[in-house]
Specification:
261 residues, alpha/beta, TIM Barrel, eight-stranded parallel barrel, 46% helix, globular, binds phosphoenolpyruvate
């Protein structure tokens, strides 16, 4: 069985002191422990504060929201995998739809980042997903296949098992409009079938695929009960510690019900 993984994508929110405040509250809530992997992705500038706040809580892992693919060089404003590794950052979100749409990241650039992350033992959380126009035009499978093939080029089966995928329909991100659990399951099952073709069925079975797009405490459990949904990548609802904790608990509850069904 795959352990669910729930990640908080804070985007451009929370200063270092706000990060400390959040984590002070969150670690108290999380003390009891839940059978989900919990990842928090603050802005770069708040990673050091987060790392210090989590020294006694190493089950909660940190992620960066992006990185460059080179290890150093003349890339003003960029952060490298070497730098993240030294800060003991375990995950990096790559290919988020905001990076693709606002910052022009292509599958080729994202692929270079995925490969660089693995080189430095940082697990990529690779985001894929279609726009509403693409879905309405019947292009869901084509878009997902292109993003997966492009983003995962040259990734070995061993590296794939240490890659997390996030299915994030662009029309559901920050809009309050969640994909139904049936829509999420359909896309996740399709993604797993693409992985089985690119790798093998066993590798495909082991890869965790998060759902992302307006996840809240109230819709997480049903999403997590879907056979191919392994947790969530959460934006807006991860900014408040109580709400993020409820999502973690709901993901755990959904996975437990799924296992016993
Ligand atoms: C995201 O940005 O990855 C995301 C899913 O955002 P939200 O939960 O706010 O829709």
């Amino acid at each position: 069985m795959r352990n669910p993984i729930v990640a908080a994508n804070w985007k451009m929110h929370k200063t270092p002191s706000e990060t400390e405040d959040f984590l002070r509250g969150f670690v108290v809530l999380a003390k009891a422990g839940e059978p989900v992997d919990i990842v928090i992705a603050p802005p770069y500038i708040s990673l050091a504060a987060a790392s210090a706040a989590l020294t006694q809580h190493d089950s909660i892992k940190l992620a960066a929201q992006n990185m460059h693919y080179e290890q150093s060089g003349a890339f003003t404003g960029e952060i490298s995998p070497l730098m993240l590794r030294e800060m003991l950052i375990h995950y990096v979100i790559l290919g988020h739809s905001e990076r693709r749409a606002i910052f022009g990241e292509t599958d080729e650039i994202i692929n270079r980042k995925v490969l660089a992350a693995h080189q430095f033992n940082i697990k990529p959380i690779l985001c894929v997903g279609e726009t509403l126009e693409e879905r309405d035009a019947g292009r869901l499978e084509e878009v997902l296949t292109t993003q997966l093939k492009g983003g995962l080029a040259g990734v070995s089966a061993d590296q794939m098992i240490n890659t997390v995928l996030a299915y994030e329909p662009v029309w559901a991100i920050g809009t309050g409009r969640t994909a139904s659990s049936a829509q999420a399951q359909e896309a996740h099952a399709f993604i797993r079938s693409v992985l089985a073709n690119l790798y093998d069925p066993e590798t495909a079975r082991r890869v965790r695929i998060q759902y992302g797009g307006s996840v809240k405490p109230g819709n997480m459990e049903e999403l997590a009960m879907q056979p191919d949904v392994d947790g969530a990548l959460v934006g807006g609802a991860s900014l408040e510690s109580g709400s993020f904790w409820e999502i973690c608990r709901a993901a755990a509850a959904g996975a437990t019900r799924k296992a016993s069904a």
